[in-house]
Amino acid sequence: MFWSYCDDLLAQIRTGWQDKKGDDMSTDTLIRPEIKTSGGYIEDIMNIVKAKNPAEPEFHQAVQEVLESLRVVLQRHPEYRESRILERMIEPERVIMFRVPWFDDAGNIQVNRGFRIEMNSAIGPYKGGLRFHASVNLGILKFLAFEQVLKNSLTTLPMGGGKGGSDFDPKGKSNNEVMRFCQSFMTELARHIGPDTDVPAGDIGVGGREIGFLFGEYKRLRNEFTGVLTGKGLNWGGSLIRPEATGYGCVYFAAEMLKTRNDSLEGKLCLVSGSGNVAQYTVEKLLDLGAIPITMSDSNGVIFDPDGFNREKLAWIMELKNVRRGRIRDYADQFKQAVFIPSDVKLGYNPLWNINAHCAFPSATQNEISARDAANLIKNGVTLVAEGANMPSTLDATRIFLEAGILYGPAKAANAGGVATSGLEMAQNSARLNWTREEVDDRLHKIMIAIHRNSHETAEIYGTPGNLVNGANIAGFLKVADAMLDQGVV
Ligand code: NDP
């Protein structure tokens, strides 16, 4: 009996059938011999990612998180393995890398590097922001583009995924320098983008000013006025609520998470990191919903206002950051009850995440919450984390949140309101119409409710109720994967 069982098993292995590791053995899970089983298959894909993309740890991290969520999907749907959907999704459809030479105000030639990652166009034109920051490199943009594919899928709108940018840092540059850089950057990028091909937007270091310069140059080169970029000015094709959308959407998402526990944001102490676009409008919407935001930050340090921000204080911060382009430490000089805690890498943790509060809204940058920070948050009473920034939590921090059973809204679901409203800007541009503020805000709100419901229900369907990381990854993946199956091997 035992030996005949062994013979059967060996025969199965020889013919390339699946082993028993975590998979059911029904005939519809049989796969081609060279394609390995789901357990080993995920590890194999990770090995490919690491071997083919060395020195890109952020890209590895983003792929790893998604693959962990997809194990159960691959067991239920062998067709994705057979069609090599994962192998195709980890490979960008196109990577464009180019030189960006420009003159600084002293007449010196400066040279930066420009990128556009056109990751996946299965469900629509490539869509995703441009980041201008000294830390930008290929791996960071590939992680962002990979995340963007699944995020855009979740928005319910027809948008593929892309991301781009440059290692140019606008901080400390004059307006003329920023303009000359943007014009040189667009001189090359214009060949690759278009309203039905690839529609970039803003991200870190790219706000309304930069989008204006980029759009002006594109229009001049192509002699056409189209919706080729989103985040445009209101009087030249922009959408109301686009600047607010990522922050507002993140807070709407947090409110939906709280509803599942019959709770609300009213009276909740909230930690917000960053002081740029996402952080500012997160604070604004938190105030609208009766919460009490108490922190903001920039790369130089953290401000903690124990009295909480109000609308006047927020208006002061917006003027500081968007007009005077100053540093957040100035807030503590202006408002004496607040303290400024300078950044200190030697500390080993971020003091912002070590303050007593109920909710946390990381809104600065990737990996800003380490495992130690996550443990501090939980120790200090935080029971909700909604990610405004992209991948702000390390894999270990994410595990800590999930194991603690707190409400955890991962970036690709919680911050999808920005790109969703970019999609609404594209729709208005195509129809040559402008919707009212109320109409756009209402659509944004409904989209965030839908993203939460979809992620929540998908997590349940795939056996991990409450785990929105799995829910968002799986729901985002399924739509793209099915479109790829429909469109053949391209
Ligand atoms: P901004 O450039 O407007 O603001 C970024 C903020 O984060 C600044 O306060 C900046 O401080 C801080 N920051 C950036 N890098 C670091 C760092 N390495 N260490 C500490 N602080 C840092 O960008 P956004 O607000 O647009 O973007 C913030 C995050 O939200 C990013 O992760 C972005 O990808 C994500 N996001 C943005 C969307 C959008 O619509 N804008 C949409 C979806 C996600 P400093 O000025 O000192 O650099």
Architecture (CATH level 2) name of the largest domain: 3-Layer(aba) Sandwich
Number of helices: 18
Tell me the CATH topology of the largest domain.
Answer: Rossmann fold
As a percent range, the share of helical residues equals 40-55%
For the largest beta-sheet, the strand count, sense and barrel status come to: 5 strands, mixed
Secondary structure: number of strands? 13
- The top-level CATH class of the largest domain is Alpha Beta
Strand order of the largest sheet: 1-2-4-3-5
Give the distinct bound molecules.
NADPH dihydro-nicotinamide-adenine-dinucleotide phosphate
* Terminal Cα span: 48 Å
Set down the secondary structure blueprint:
Layout: H1 2-14, H2 38-52, H3 57-76, H4 78-82, H5 85-89, E1 94-103, E2 109-120, E3 126-132, H6 138-154, E4 161-166, H7 175-189, E5 198-201, H8 208-222, H9 242-259, E6 269-272, H10 277-288, E7 292-293, E8 295-298, E9 301-304, H11 311-323, H12 330-334, E10 339-342, E11 359-361, H13 371-379, E12 384-386, H14 395-404, E13 407-409, H15 411-414, H16 417-431, H17 437-461, H18 468-486
Parallel strand pairs: 3-4, 3-5, 6-7, 6-11, 11-12, 12-13
Antiparallel strand pairs: 1-2, 2-4, 8-9, 9-10
Helix pairs in contact: 2-3, 3-6, 3-18, 6-18, 7-8, 9-10, 9-16, 9-17, 10-11, 13-14, 16-17, 17-18
NADPH dihydro-nicotinamide-adenine-dinucleotide phosphate is lined by residues 202-205, 207, 246, 274-279, 298-299, 363-365, 388-390, 415, 418.
In a few lines, what is going on in this structure?
48% of the residues lie in helices and 13% in strands.
